[in-house]
Amino acid sequence: MTSMLSVVLLILKGLGIAFLVILALLFLLLFLLLFVPFRYRGETSYHHALHVAFDISWLLRAFCFRVRYADSLHMELCLLRSSIWNNQKKPSSPPEHTAGEAASLSEKTREGEKRMSQTADWNSEQPIQSKPISTEPNQTEVRHTETGQAGPDQTEVHRATKQEQKKDWRTRVWQRLEQAEEIRDRIGEELSFFRHERTKRAFRRLRQALSRILKELLPRSMDGCLRFGFDDPFTTGQICAAAALLLPLYRDRLTIQPIFDRTVLDGELSLKGRIRLIVLLIAGLRVWRDRDCRYVYENYQKRKRQRVNCRNTKYETEEEHG
Asked: How many CB atoms lie within 10 A of CB 287?
């Protein structure tokens, strides 16, 4: 009895150790996913043809995803420097037939050709039968012409149509007025909602979170050169003036060289960056736990349900009256 109990305890101990090891590995993997950044690198150039190279790596390039584009798109997934997936599949060669299979295929094709020729000869020998065309008038047309029944009075029909048109015009005008009042009320509700203090605080929180996310996603370093020129120097000068307005965004990162004496368009661009999932997760949790953001979300869902209910009741009343 004691030996059986010790064996059961030993098995439970082994299962507990295995469970703890698996749980520790899962926590380690989650920790690595959150804190080890995903690094990306991209290079592109245009000299009479577009060339693009983009890589995303993680955990000291243990996992790597590569995208290349020159004449065609090439994607590859690598694990420990070895390719495990590639979108360019090798073309499969057609199956080779033996001599016996080739002979049987040729016999089958000959038999099919003989059958086709026999059916064609038989169809040519059969006479074509045509139905005689009857020149007698249709009985229904004769009956209608013989009876010659007169329709309702045209004046009464014209008056009825005029009255229906007046009613339809009045109902359409009334419906348009009701829709205009509904739109005015809805605009007033939207303005009062956006002018509320809690809504303003929620939008400030969202703006801060989005700026933090964009700062994390945008490249840390960027270097490039762009050369362009057009037939008309005035057009080249206009593009230079537009590029000068965006100078704070690419200062010391992108060099622009306008060329006024010929038509040219080429350039190179390279960028590097990293993405940490913990930053994105913290920004999302701050927005979700914020009371003002939750108030805006719940109010939006409530108003959406109210609109759906009003629309359904309106359709039901129209079906009852109609």
From this structure: 18
Q: Which residues pair with 43 in a beta bridge?
A: 53, 270
CA dihedral 285, 288, 289, 294 (to 10 degrees): 170
Residues 6+ apart with CB under 8 A from 255: 224, 225, 226
User: What are the residues facing 52 on neighbouring strands?
Assistant: 44, 69
How far CA 246 is from CA of 43, 214, 230, 234, 243, in Å, comes to 22, 18, 21, 19, 5
Encoded amino acid at 74, one letter: H
Give the residue among 73, 77, 76, 75 at the shortest CA–CA distance from 51. Answer: 73
d(CA 44, CA 54): 8
Q: What span, in angstroms and rounded, lies between the C-alpha atoms of 28 and 59?
A: 13
Side-chain half-sphere of 98: how many Cα atoms within 13 Å? 2
Cβ atoms of 114 and 104 within 8 Å: the answer is: no
Full pLDDT tens readout for the chain, 322 residues: 677 888 888 899 999 999 999 999 999 999 999 999 999 999 999 988 999 999 999 998 999 999 999 889 999 999 988 999 998 765 455 445 455 555 565 666 666 666 666 655 555 554 444 444 444 444 444 444 444 444 445 666 666 676 666 667 777 777 788 778 878 888 888 888 888 899 999 999 999 999 999 999 999 999 999 999 998 999 999 999 999 898 887 888 889 999 998 899 999 999 999 999 999 999 999 999 999 999 999 988 888 888 788 777 766 666 666 5
* Inter-residue contact 42 to 268 (CB < 8 Å): no
